[in-house]
Amino acid sequence: MRDVENSSYSELHKPSSEFDSRSDYLDHELQIMKPRRWGLNLPGRDFRFEWEDLVPAIAGTIGITVMYSAVMAAWGAGLTERWDHVNLGAEWAIEVVRVEMLIPALLFCILGSGFINPRANLAGNHGPMIPLIGAIALAGAHPLALAILLGVFGLLLSYFKGGSKLVNLTGEGVAGGLLVYLGAMGSMGQIGSLFTWAEGLQAKHALDYSLSHVALMILAVNIIVYSVLARMGKRWLAIPLCSIAAVAIAFAFGAGLDLEFVTAPGLPNLNPVYWWGSTETGWQLGLPNLQHFIASLPFAILAVAMWSPDFLGHRIFQELNYPKKTDKVLMDVDDTMTCCSLRQMVGTAFGGGNITSSWGTYMIPAAIAKRPIPAGAIVLGVLCIVVAVIGYPMDITVWRPVMSIALLVGVFLPLLEAGMQMVKDTKDSQSAGICIFASIVVNPVFAWALTMLLDNNGLIGDKERANKLSFADRLIIPGGAFIICVAAMLAVGMLPGVPALL
């Protein structure tokens, strides 16, 4: 019998024909992989490409194009309102999105998570921060100053292993409640956006008839498609198949006229001087000064504080979908934090404006498909570069039916399901319920910090678990996390009824 511990991946690999099912083959691949952290990982020697890798790659490309477009639109509107000399429109936003898709895709998807450290999940978009970008811009923050601060704080936290520590101190009930809330709220938001889009088609295109029923038809068909895929154990196909179904239904019911191809092929300007060198080109802001750093500080603290619950959800999703004995391929929270920090500073230096975090629209479909990080990361990076250069696919991915359905079946429904799986008994349901309640009252970050503090001290949830924790794990670390989160929220006005201190 071959020594599994001392044998390499290439020695332990077996062709799929030797297994009873495709699922068994994918499980075996996860169990024999031994990715090298901060070393060179090579196809064939350390991992293989499988056709299942296309699913998270396509899902991640759709998701990130949607997110980047939303981020740049928010930055452009906020900065144009804040500064009299700044005028950032749709053409500018497209160019920044292309910068964000080219540089990070090459450096941090293909090279970083693909070849150098497959234990680090891809650095994507910080979705919960998108609603705050308008406020960030109006507060006088500078995107480059924000990126530098966020990157420095993130590197410090990852160096001292703070991210993994916070993840380990988050109980299952707290984590389950957090996932349920994020999944439910995200699902409701996308459903509402889809209906708003359908109801607005009549006025937008001066039609004599209403198309408000199109959203209902798209959702009804996709509920059936998703249910069938779940029954067959093929949920990892949900994003491409459900997106295709959404396009087909939209065209069948006359809503296809809303799809316009306006983004022509091309390359963005990749010279940092163009973007930050003067007040006449790029972002039209010039280099940041001390005032910009002060205005950006509380938002940088808040963004980094929100990383841990975000990373926690993605790591848990892997654990729920991967078989046993796959610890070596689970994402490393601290390594992911390091890559996110570096990606934040490098991507913004080249002209980007994204606020980064662990890439959920990649990780969640990858976990469902039982695929490790590296191969899909490389495929995704290539797809992002192709989409950015060609241009026209960007118009499809941000079209409302595709965007909403992709986020629904690829992110929010799986999050909701994972959260419900984690709530296993009365003690977990108590922690989960309070976490959901606090999320509704304030926001998910406040809820995570508060319920983690209460749960670790036995005030809610499992009291026996609290007795096993040290004083630092019960009070100092959770208490410090809670104080930092509340202080940052007070500074930027995120606590309901309390005006911003800065």
TrEMBL record:
Residues 1-20 are annotated as: Disordered. It comes from Ferrimonas sediminum. This is DUF3360 family protein. The chain crosses the membrane at residues 54-75, 96-117, 129-157, 178-198, 210-229, 236-257, 290-308, 373-392, 398-420, 432-454, 474-495. Keywords: Membrane, Transmembrane, Transmembrane helix. The keyword S-adenosyl-L-methionine does not apply. InterPro entries: DUF3360.
